[in-house]
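Message: Just now I want nothing more than another pair of eyes on a protein record. I am handing you a single protein, as its sequence and its fold in token form. As I understand it, each token names a local backbone shape. Take your time, and here it is.
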Amino acid sequence: MQLIDIAHNLIDERERLGYSRKNFAAQVNKTDESLRLYETGKANMSAEFLAAAAQLGVDVQFVLTGVKSENLHMVAQKFENELNQVLNENHGGVQFNAEVSGSPIVGNHNTVNQVTGTQNNITTQKHITKTVVEISPDDNRIDEEEKAILLDLVNKIVAKEQEVKRKPKTHRAVWSSLNAHCQVSTYKLIAKDDFEKAKMFLRKWLGNLNNTATSKRNNPTAYRNNQYSTIHVKIKELGLEEWYRDTLKSKFGVDSSTELDEVEMKKLVTMVNGKYSREKKKLSE
């Protein structure tokens, strides 16, 4: 697997266990920066780190391979219970079929023989089947560099969600939204032609978060810069540059939005959002 896929799996496991990045880093004796590098696919995970993560309940096999590991104790216990039931209820030839942890266990016409009245012999054959979905390289899908760009945007969105929302979205929720937007089951299947669409979706999400009142209160300069960024993303997406220049000139008498005061900027944002919504509606009709 690629580092970026392993990074994605690690995030899934951390969130499944309910840890924030900061808390998880503390539990495995790593700095926030070290964990960030792991979760962005920019550094290899050490054996020491994986061992510590496993102690917290992380499925290390899933992190490294994408395949969920079996709970062997539960499998063995259920299998033993099924066998005991057969021994107690049958005195002749039996065929044993059971489902254990989603994997089929099939008996091969096993025979239970009563030898001394107290001892029973039974022979079974257990088959555990796992299915691994391998996604082969395809020139029509996004490449590793493009995956890394999307992962970076998702990480920024989650960080901003945690900063400004009472109930922030998790990595899993953001990825699910992106996959639904691009109509794929996993981001790895996003078509190369849809990369800009995916990137724009995430950038708009990030822009909306940056435009919240909390962002404005905490960092007015960043809030203003993010207003510029959000406006230009929408203008570029629909090719509204000429309309935008005309609007600045006719409505505000300026050549650049940087010349607007706070009240004028708010009006401009409202106008751009309205124009954007109307144009999007026309395109969908």
Observations:
- The longest helix spans residues 262-284.
- The chain is about 60% helix and 5% strand.
- The two ends are 42 Å apart (CA to CA).
- Residues 93-133 have pLDDT under 50 and may be disordered.
